[in-house]
Design goal:
The chain has about 100 residues and is mainly beta. The chain folds into two domains: about 40 residues, no CATH class; about 45 residues, no CATH class. The strands form two sheets. It has a three-stranded antiparallel sheet, with no helix packed on it. The protein has a three-stranded antiparallel sheet with strand order 4-5-6, with no helix packed on it. A hairpin with a 2-residue loop joins strand 4 and strand 5. The longest helix is centred in the middle third of the chain and has 6 residues. It is rod-shaped.
């Protein structure tokens, strides 16, 4: 269940000017504070997204990264197992094995 952040429109209540509350996504946003009954507004919270940064991170998360080396030739910098390090667009047998990486 997501955590939403609310801020008092007026002076606030004894608990503070803003508060967090866990609510289902399907529920309506709050119009009043559950503690003091004063009007509140939902505010946009900061969030963090963690993305793989290095080739090693990409590889461990199952991603394939191709770096262009020549016209139609790519280097698979995240090759694993029996995958070819070089992918030539004219040679389908050198294409990365995506079926081994894609799972339900």
């Amino acid at each position: 269940m997501p955590i939403y952040e609310y801020e008092h429109i007026g002076a606030g209540c004894p608990k503070g000017k803003s508060f967090e509350i866990s609510q289902p996504m399907s529920s309506e946003k709050l119009a009043v504070c559950p503690e003091c009954g004063e009007p509140v507004k939902r505010i946009i919270s900061l969030f963090s997204v963690s993305t793989p940064k290095t080739n090693s991170d990409l590889k461990s998360h199952g991603f394939t990264k191709l770096v262009r080396r020549d016209n139609g030739v790519y280097e698979n910098v995240t090759a694993t197992g029996k995958e070819s390090k070089i992918w030539d667009a004219r040679k389908p047998e050198t294409m990365p094995d995506l079926k081994s990486k894609i799972r339900d």
